[in-house]
Inverse folding.
């Protein structure tokens, strides 16, 4: 006979097995791309967080001095904010009445102590128009220094609240952080994490908000010299690329029309690219053609000033391209830039001879110029399998490139000594033979 507890265990197990057979469990949809509304509420603060309970207060110039002792969570009446910094941080926090901010998390990597004003606003300042596709309140960040600040910002997205503010349905997977760059709203690479936070990394501090970036509509291929008529074209004219990510299919050509520049890329293999451009980069067309031996990941950064320790070349045109790939094999590529002498002369304030423009790459100590052609479509082009920092400069004469130093060949000292000893023995032998024959004579 089974004991009473054992009999109960057997009966319960049998019932569970039968229910699993006839009523299988349905997996709960997560908050992935296009899956469900996401988490039902903001998460609890982390266990090591220091909590400051101000739940009866709407912050107005609330000052707090933070030392590096783990995350700090401020629970106000109308919002929850979490901060972490690796240096001393003094904060001045204001949240406008009527505003509801569920959970904002800021993680700061600093080189020096910092003072930061944080103001959560219902709307933008009077002199700034919010984005037409904006869906949220505004966050004004004002540090006393912008040097060497890296930040990760996370905002919990409450679906019902966002749709109420936008007065329409909202696709949370199309939400992006964006900031006011002085003339326009610049979107940055953003993603939803598993806890329902919209996340971005930045080193920029000004006025921020959230916008719903609709999937870009295709557009007719623009009539630009150097662009084939069959290329797929996408309209991103409302933004300057900031960590702009795109996957290009094998043997596919794609053209992107950004706010101040147009870029065309094609690749003979699948490629993931990540593109960033400075707000002051203005180009009619940058063209990149790639022939890798395998699938590729490529990072590109276009700026008007030389990056890192690269020097500004004499008679440069103010265009710099940092390009790097994950491939360990050489990647055959063609770099092309549309040039217009009249526009360059107006931009640079000097005469420009388009036929004397050359592509060059920075080898760590100097610019090395490469063979360059200027086609009938005014595309200045070069071929390379070398990715680093590239620029274009006017060269009156073909530059004389110093040869790369060749490594000294090791000297075979031992072999030379064998030669010298052998020669000496031959001489000594000849002298001995001479005296022997002379003596016999």
């Amino acid at each position: 006979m089974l004991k009473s507890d054992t009999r109960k265990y057997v009966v319960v197990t049998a019932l569970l097995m039968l229910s699993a057979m006839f009523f299988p469990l349905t997996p709960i949809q997560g908050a992935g791309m296009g899956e469900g509304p996401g988490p039902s509420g903001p998460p609890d603060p982390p266990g090591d967080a220091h909590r400051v309970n101000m739940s009866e207060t709407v912050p107005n110039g609330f000052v707090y001095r933070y030392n590096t002792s783990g995350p700090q969570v401020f629970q106000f009446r109308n919002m929850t904010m979490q901060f972490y910094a690796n240096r001393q941080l003094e904060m001045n926090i204001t949240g406008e009445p009527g505003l509801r901010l569920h959970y904002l998390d800021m993680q700061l990597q600093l080189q020096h102590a910092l003072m930061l004003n944080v103001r959560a606003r219902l709307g933008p300042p009077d002199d700034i128009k919010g984005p037409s596709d904006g869906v949220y309140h505004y966050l004004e960040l004002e540090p006393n220094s912008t040097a060497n600040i890296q930040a990760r910002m996370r905002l919990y997205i409450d679906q019902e609240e966002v749709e109420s503010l936008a007065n329409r349905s909202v696709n949370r997977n199309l939400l992006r952080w964006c900031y006011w760059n002085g003339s326009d709203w610049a979107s940055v690479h953003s993603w939803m994490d598993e806890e329902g936070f919209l996340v971005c990394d930045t080193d920029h501090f000004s006025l921020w908000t959230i916008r719903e970036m609709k999937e870009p509509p295709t557009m007719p291929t623009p009539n630009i010299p150097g662009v084939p008529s069959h290329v797929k074209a996408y309209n991103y004219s409302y933004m300057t690329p900031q960590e702009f990510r795109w996957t290009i299919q094998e043997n596919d050509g794609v053209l992107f029309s950004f706010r101040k520049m147009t870029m065309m890329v094609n690749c003979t293999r699948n490629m993931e690219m990540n593109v960033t451009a400075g707000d002051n980069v203005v180009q009619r067309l940058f063209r990149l053609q790639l022939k890798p031996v395998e699938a590729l990941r490529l990072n590109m950064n276009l700026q008007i000033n030389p990056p890192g320790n690269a020097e500004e070349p004499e008679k440069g045109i103010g265009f710099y391209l940092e390009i790097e790939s994950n491939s360990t094999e050489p990647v055959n590529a063609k770099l092309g830039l549309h040039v217009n002498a009249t526009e360059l002369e107006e931009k640079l304030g000097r005469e420009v001879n388009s036929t004397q423009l050359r592509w060059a790459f920075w080898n760590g100590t100097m610019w090395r110029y490469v063979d360059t052609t200027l086609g009938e479509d005014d595309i200045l082009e070069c071929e390379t399998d070398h990715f680093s920092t590239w620029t274009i400069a006017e060269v009156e004469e073909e530059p004389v490139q110093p040869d790369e130093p060749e490594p000294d060949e090791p000297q075979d000292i031992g072999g030379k000594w064998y030669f010298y000893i052998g020669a000496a023995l031959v001489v000594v032998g000849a002298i001995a033979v001479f005296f022997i024959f002379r003596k016999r004579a």
Observations:
- Confidence is low (pLDDT under 50) at residues 1-6, 8-38, 407-418.
- Residues 50-212 form one domain.
